[in-house]
Write a structure and sequence with these properties.
This protein has 15 helices and no strands. By secondary structure, it is mostly helical. The N and C termini lie close together (11 Å).
Amino acid sequence: MIGAIVGDIIGSVFEQYPIKTTSFPLFSMLSRFTDDTVLTIAIADSILHNFDYATALKAFARRYPAAGYGLSFYRWMQSSNDEAYYSWGNGSAMRVSPVGFAFNSIEKVLNEAEKSAAVTHNHPEGIKGAQATALAIYLARQGTSKAEIGQEITDRFGYNLNRSLNEIRPSYIFDVSCQGSVPESMIAFFESHNFEDAIRMAISLGGDTDTMGCIAGGIAQAFYRDISPTILIQAKQRLPQEFLAIIEEFNNKYGIEL
């Protein structure tokens, strides 16, 4: 899941100032973790310690209330009511990467991805975005080829992955929906040559850059299994010790090596 977190941090500075190029500095003084990272850590902690997803999400969000949550999620996490709010937003996909790394069958990955999404994002598109992202990560870490991953995602979820970034980029705008950002994030991964390239590709679309970097980054970590030590150091310097401890515990438990 560290790949998703790296993508979030790198993408954080471009959300308000979108770019349409892959040539940009990966980190700056303004680079920071956002709600994508907080909620990814919450899902990982939930899996590690058998908390229900809603409890973990609320607990971490309340500890880090200024991370940039959407208004609907913010209201939900402050409320004593756990009722989901039928969201189709990409928040379900941005936080799901631990599911793809932790579980060891397609059936279990899809089931847990749905559970992790449905506590807030119980709209069919919200669930689909989480399931597609988690499944892509699971298949990538199994050594499945990009072509086979793309075909499986297309067959199961109906996403149009038969597009190029050059076709998408000129007219693409900020889009927080699963259906309008998850396929594009996956295409960024498919066109990449390494982990860093996947992040650059996703951000270069000029959309919801932290979340798209997060989605592409999780899949790219699983597929390439190699993130530059320099990038990891820069990202980890921006994380609280609590997050670093959970990442280490998660990696150790599930045998994730970079």
